[in-house]
Amino acid sequence: xxxxxxxxxxxxxxxxxxxxxxxxxxxxxxxxEQVMAYFFGAGMATDAFVTAFxxxxxxxxxxxxxxxxxxxxxxxxxxxxxxxxxxAFRLANVVVTFILLLVGLIVILGIVATPAIxxxxxxxxxxxxxxxxxxxDLTRIMFVYLLLVSLSSLVMGMLNSFGRFxxxxxxxxxxxxxxxxxxxxxxxxxxxxxxxxAVGVVIGGAGQLSIQLPALWRTGYRFRxxxxxxxxxxxxxxxxxxxxxxxxxxxxxxxxxxxxLASFLLEGSISYLNYSYRLMHFPLGVFAVALxxxxxxxxxxxxxxxxxxxxxxxxxxxxxxNMLVVVPSAVCLALLGREIVDLIYHWGAFSDANxxxxxxxxxxxxxxxxxxxxxxxxxPFFYAFGDSKLPMKISMFSVxxxxxxxxxxxxxxxxxxxxxxxxxAGLVNFSLLAYYLRFKQVYxxxxxxxxxxxxxxxxxxxxxxxxxxVPYGISxxxxxxxxxxxxxxxxxxxxxxxxxxxxxxxxVREVTAIFSLFGSRKKP
Length: 524
Hints:
mainly alpha, 0% strand, globular
């Protein structure tokens, strides 16, 4: 066993490190969306880019950040715990070589088949040849990003397995920075400025990979091409990843159906859903994804040691910390959605109508945030046991629920019905995962979990509703930017403080744990 160079730190501290780095990345992500909204508004160019980026991005979720890292980390960690670093690095070389060949082939085939892919995924664009051709061109440029982000995901998995979370969590910032700088610098130099978005994606993907390589080098890893399709570790990764891809494929097909339906609705619908999804994804990425990132290598090691009590404690701690942040975030998005949209997007070509429609979609994504976030920290417990089939089946069932809800909710809510259907399906997905987790001998205190959720939800609703009623009245006559900052910042700050206070009053255990951690750090 050779894990002597694995950094050890508390679960909360590790999550805090990842959350801080991810928060910076997400801020740059919002800046990226702001730049896109400022330069392009919500119309043909943004609809084309969002649709084009969705194709390689969906494949990224399946072959890179979604499935690849989740399948690779438990096997790599098991090698570190049970055998040696040399054996783990040998596996890494086999997997990297395999991915270079497989994903490289997918990229080539994708570029050739792009017109057919766009015809299927956004058939409504065929009524506008200019829009259709632009979407095809942008997709072809961005297919290269799939290979870059797949390699980046493997590097991230190796670094996380060694307890190094900061640099990998910071790497998406390079992606966002690449897109922002490319658009700002090259916008005036393209006859069709939308191409700057696609070029920026490729540049950002290269930066996302490159920034992690020095840290990987310091672990002692050196890449040596190793083609061995019969390698036992590679077979284990493939066995684990296959059901993940099937489950994720069902979800991604659902997203493509979402795009297809939105392409027939009000022009800008795809953009409204994209802008609002990005806002919802901010708290999801900052904390839920951070917790999921820290959870996977930790519970993989516990599973390798057959530490069932530790796994039960880890789940209770992870889901509790998750909900402590995500529940008030969801309430904040729902109650202050228009103020958030105005501050982030309502500039330049982004109109009042764009802001109203984006905030409506955000309202219906807000409650789905709870389900999406909870799934992020629950699924790693199944993967740690080498079980990706059950999450796949549950994912496919939730996709069926999503598809079944599309028609009635579109009739009622128009494009916002697509967001509502996705949110409800996310809540169903988590509920089923939590129920079946006990069959892995991971003890779940359902009663305490439910009571804690109710306490957090009540505290968040009371806090942010009361914050909206505060007559602060200091935002007039100070400029549009300052007005919007005050309109959002004051109720958000008041709401957050009231929420923490009410959590203490309601005796929410997670708040006490965090205060205890900070208190212990101050002691000499």
